Amino acid sequence: MDLTPFSLIGTAVFAASGALAADQKRFDIVGALFLSVAAGLGGGTLVDLLIGHAPVRWVADPTPLWIAAGAGALVFVGVRYMRPPLKTLDWADAAGLAVFAATGMERLTAAALSPAMAVLLTCIGACGGGIVRDVLANRAPLVFSGELYVTGVLLGGIAYLGAEALAPGAGLWAALVVTAVVRSAGLIFGLRLIHGRG
C-alpha cells in the first residue's frame, strides 16, 4: 500500500498542532513555522537517523517539508480570525499520533526489523515530533505528563502485529484505530498513568 497520502496527512495534522502550540505561547510566524516543521517531521527524522536511512526522507523529497510549513502557516493565520475550540491542540495531536503509529508500523515491519524493534521505533517516530514541539515551546512534553500517549502507540503497534498475523493487510487499520481509541479515551475520560510522588 502507498503510505504517502497517510504520511502527508499525519505531517499536516502534527504541523497544525505545532502552530496551535505557537499560538498559545504567543510566538510569531517564524516561531510557528519552526514548531510546525519540528512537530510534523521531527519523529520521522529521528527514526531515519536511527535506522541509517540516508538521506532523510524529507531531504530527498521535500514535499513533507512544504506540507508541514503550509499547514502550520494556514492554521497560525486562521486562528487570528477564529478561535479554535478547547482542546483542539490535543485532538490534532491525537489524530497525528494515530496516523504516524499506523504508517510507522507499516514502514518499519516492511524494513525487515524485528517486531519488538518495529514497535519501539514506531513509538519514537510517532511521539518524537510532539516531544520536540513541546520542548521548543517550553511545555512539559505530553509523553511524560501521565497522558495515555506512548501507551496508545504501543498498543497500536501490538494490534498491528496481531492483525497482520490473523489477516495480512489489516494491520495498518488496526494500529490506526487502536491508537486513536486509546488516546481518545485518555482525553475524554481523563485516564492517566501513575505519577511520581514529587
In words, what does this structure look like?
The protein has 8 helices and no strands. By secondary structure, the protein is an all-alpha fold. The protein has one domain. Helix 5 packs antiparallel against helix 8. The longest helix has 23 residues. The N and C termini lie far apart (about 45 Å). The mean pLDDT is about 95.
Low-confidence stretches: none
Shape: globular
Major sheet summary line: none
Content of β-strand: under 5%
Number of helices: 8
- Taking the alpha carbons of the first and last residues, their distance comes to 47 Å
Class computed from helices, strands and strand pairing: mainly alpha
The tally of beta strands, per DSSP, is 0
Helix content: over 70%
Provide mean pLDDT, rounded: 94
Rg, Å, rounded: 16 Å
H and E order: HHHHHHHH
| Total number of distinct structural domains | 1
Which key features would you list for this structure?
single chain; 198 residues
Secondary structure blueprint with pairings:
Elements: H1 4-24, H2 29-51, H3 57-60, H4 63-78, H5 88-110, H6 115-136, H7 150-166, H8 171-189
Helix pairs in contact: 1-2, 1-4, 1-5, 2-4, 2-6, 5-6, 5-7, 5-8, 6-7, 7-8
In short, what is this structure?
The chain has eight helices and no strands. It has 198 residues and is mainly α.
